[in-house]
Amino acid sequence: MKNFWSENCYNVVKLFLNQIALSMLGFVMAMATQNAHIVLRVLVGVFCIVFYLWILYVMMYEMGQKDGIKIQSGRLHYAKYKGFGIAFLANIPNIIIGILNFIGGLGYEIIGVTVKSWAAELYFVANAIGKVIQAVYLPLISAILNNEYWTLLVTPVFPIVVCMVAYRLGVKYCDGFANV
Question: pTM for this structure?
């Protein structure tokens, strides 16, 4: 694990910083369409998510192609789940916030509306942090899902799957002349 981190630290941080940078797009789009018709809010939300996932796809596909060249020349062994590992490490903050948000939201539903409950405080803090770092999903979550407490638990799945698929496709369709 230590070797994996030292070899891929740059890519993990780059994935997370891409998410933070594109969260600004989500904030702007959510605020711009706040009072718009539901169809426009859904379309804007889908655009934000697809754009974010496309950025991740391109980055991981390129990384897969670079590794594919090294694999073809025998300088690197093929790691089948490298894309998954990089995306998982980059999404650890999202997963932790999603779990805390889920526990707080579930407790908030079970205990009820009391301002001083631990569940309410956990839910509100985790929800606020989650919406800041995962704001790229904000237009769609606010338009369709009514800010449900389980949404932040599900959102890290999409970038992890996209990164895993993109890396594998990059390695598979490497032509040996990707960066010439």
Answer: 0.86
